[in-house]
């Protein structure tokens, strides 16, 4: 893009466009990948510390397949709906008024928990890299994160595309470098501890990592000019996410061993590779947090706007006020040390997401086929919409959630006796 065109686009973003911004295919894929590759992907290796790599791999496969299916359900429902509705709006239209509040609680829980963890992790990383106080590091991260979020969908998509490309390059360098280290031990991958109270809760983290269901309607708005690109972007984006979710924990574990994996994996993984890798791995970590902040934060802003029936796309004053409610509370909670653990911040979003995202997409799809506004440019294959698949989704998500809650409160051993 030429300088003059870039300047005009920036001014248009500040003034607010008269219509929804269009996303390119790569921007849509990058939006999904960037949202998923945040603090979850940096913490998923740590979630396996007390269980092993094999249980993590199992849940990543199950979670990846089921989350992709539910995202495609939402995609079809969105393409059957004339208005650009977020998940809360789709829930009202196709399930009922009460569903609006249930879905919004799920959206808010996921977004707030995620933004808290991003602020906490960014402060930890900047402190480790530069010796900056954690609180100041969180504030420094907040400035570009909230700034791009304020500019809107097109700015987010463009930012995600640029940063995800850099992240992919860094990740390739780190993974290749790991396999050239003499200290790697593939035996670490077979280490496993048959502790159900450690194995089952991994699913909550996996659900959070695959929580991009919430941004499918946001992607659909950007693909309104070419709706058939939406399912393709979802499938490709989730495949890329799955590959990265496997490779990052695998690389860290074979090099460090389970016992040495840190809560934010780049802090220990990079150091184990070498001094130079420590710097670029933590740069990857900051980028990962930043892109996920934009994706989930943008989704939360739009959902609030839908709740209060305000236009946050074309009126940046309204968007700014909403942004204050979205971005400031997580920063303040971290700044005043009211949340000290990233794992705890992500636990409840995973639990809430598992319960809601297992049932609502099915109901939304079924009713959109009955009461949708228009013919869809694409619909889910019968292979993924039969009764058996839908029942599997509900059983897996609900059972894993119940057992995760039981494990957290030390009740799982009694249930499994």
Explain what you see:
The protein has 18 helices and no strands. It is mainly alpha-helical. The protein has a single domain, classed as Amino acid/polyamine transporter I (Up-down Bundle). The longest helix is centred in the first third of the chain and has 34 residues. About 3% of the residues have low confidence.
Kindly state the number of beta strands.
Answer: 0
Radius of gyration: 21 Å
CATH class: Mainly Alpha
Terminal Cα separation, in Å? Answer: 63 Å
Mean pLDDT: 81
Share of helical residues: over 70%
Shape: globular
- What is the number of independent domains? 1
Q: What would the CATH topology be?
A: Amino acid/polyamine transporter I
Summarize the structure.
The protein is mainly α and 417 residues long.
């Amino acid at each position: 893009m030429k300088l003059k065109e870039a300047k005009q686009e920036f001014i248009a973003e500040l003034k607010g466009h008269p219509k929804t911004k269009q996303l390119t295919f790569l921007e849509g894929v990058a939006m999904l990948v960037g949202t998923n590759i945040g603090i979850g992907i940096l913490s998923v290796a740590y979630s396996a510390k007390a269980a092993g790599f094999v249980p993590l791999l199992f849940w990543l496969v199950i979670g990846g397949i089921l989350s992709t299916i539910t995202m495609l359900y939402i995609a079809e429902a969105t393409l059957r709906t004339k208005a650009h509705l977020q998940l809360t709006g789709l829930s009202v239209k196709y399930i009922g008024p009460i569903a609006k509040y249930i879905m919004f609680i799920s959206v808010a829980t996921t977004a707030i928990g995620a933004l808290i963890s991003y602020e906490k992790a960014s402060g930890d990383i900047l402190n480790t890299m530069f010796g900056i106080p954690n609180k100041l590091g969180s504030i420094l991260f907040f400035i570009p994160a909230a700034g791009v979020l304020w500019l809107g969908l097109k700015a987010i998509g463009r930012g995600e595309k640029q940063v995800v490309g850099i992240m992919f390059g860094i990740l390739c360098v780190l993974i290749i470098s790991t396999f050239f280290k003499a200290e790697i031990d593939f035996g670490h991958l077979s280490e496993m501890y048959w502790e159900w109270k450690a194995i089952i809760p991994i699913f909550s983290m996996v659900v959070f990592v695959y929580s991009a269901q919430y941004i499918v309607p946001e992607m659909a708005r950007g693909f309104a000019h070419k709706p058939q690109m939406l399912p393709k972007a979802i499938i490709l984006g989730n495949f890329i996410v799955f590959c990265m979710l496997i490779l990052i924990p695998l690389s860290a574990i074979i090099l460090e061993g389970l016992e040495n994996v840190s809560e934010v994996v780049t802090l220990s993984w990079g150091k184990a590779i070498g001094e130079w890798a420590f710097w670029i791995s933590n740069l990857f970590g900051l980028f990962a947090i930043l892109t996920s902040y934009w994706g989930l934060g943008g989704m939360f802003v739009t959902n609030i706007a839908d709740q209060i029936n305000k236009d946050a796309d074309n009126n940046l004053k309204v968007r700014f006020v909403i942004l204050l409610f979205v971005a400031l509370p997580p920063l303040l909670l971290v700044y005043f040390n009211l949340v000290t653990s990233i794992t705890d911040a992500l636990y409840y979003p995973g639990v809430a997401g598992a319960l809601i995202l297992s049932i609502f997409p099915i109901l939304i799809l079924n009713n959109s086929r009955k009461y949708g506004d228009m013919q869809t440019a694409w619909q889910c294959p019968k292979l993924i919409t039969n009764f058996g698949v839908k029942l599997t989704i509900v059983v897996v998500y609900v059972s894993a959630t119940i057992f995760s809650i039981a494990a957290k409160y030390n009740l799982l051993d009694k249930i499994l006796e």
